[in-house]
Amino acid sequence: IIIILFLKLNKIGSISGIGRIDIIENRFIGIKSRGCYESPGATIIMFARKHLEDLVLDKEIFYFKKSISLKYSSLIYNGFWWSPERILLQNIIDYTQKYVNGVIKLKIYKGVINVVS
């Protein structure tokens, strides 16, 4: 079911120009590289999830999760998936997500995602 969801969101998002990312990256080995990515489905899911978190999470937990997310993503990007630090941060993030659920309605048009309800 999740694959079908991503296929549909990828189609909807790509038609509207959602999820095109062009960034300069600092690689783990010390070089810079240009990365061009297309991830419309993931961009839509992340947008919806963030808005659910805005509604559900306490202010302090929201900001704490935001601050550790940078370290968490850095560990994964640099290949430290199995590190004790990543696992510790995962447990904290899982705790913050315990009550984050719900239905969110989005409108996607010409590269913009808006929350309808």
From TrEMBL:
One of its GO terms (biological process) is argininosuccinate metabolic process. Residues 5-116 form the Arginosuccinate synthase C-terminal domain. One of its GO terms (molecular function) is argininosuccinate synthase activity. The keyword Protein transport does not apply. Keywords: Amino-acid biosynthesis, Arginine biosynthesis, ATP-binding, Ligase, Nucleotide-binding. GO terms for cellular component: cytoplasm. SUPFAM superfamilies: Argininosuccinate synthetase, C-terminal domain. The keyword Membrane does not apply. Pfam families: Arginosuc_syn_C (PF20979). Coiled coil: none annotated. Its EC number is 6.3.4.5. Pathway: Amino-acid biosynthesis; L-arginine biosynthesis; L-arginine from L-ornithine and carbamoyl phosphate: step 2/3. This is argininosuccinate synthase. It comes from Cacopsylla melanoneura. The lineage of its organism: Eukaryota, Metazoa, Ecdysozoa, Arthropoda, Hexapoda.
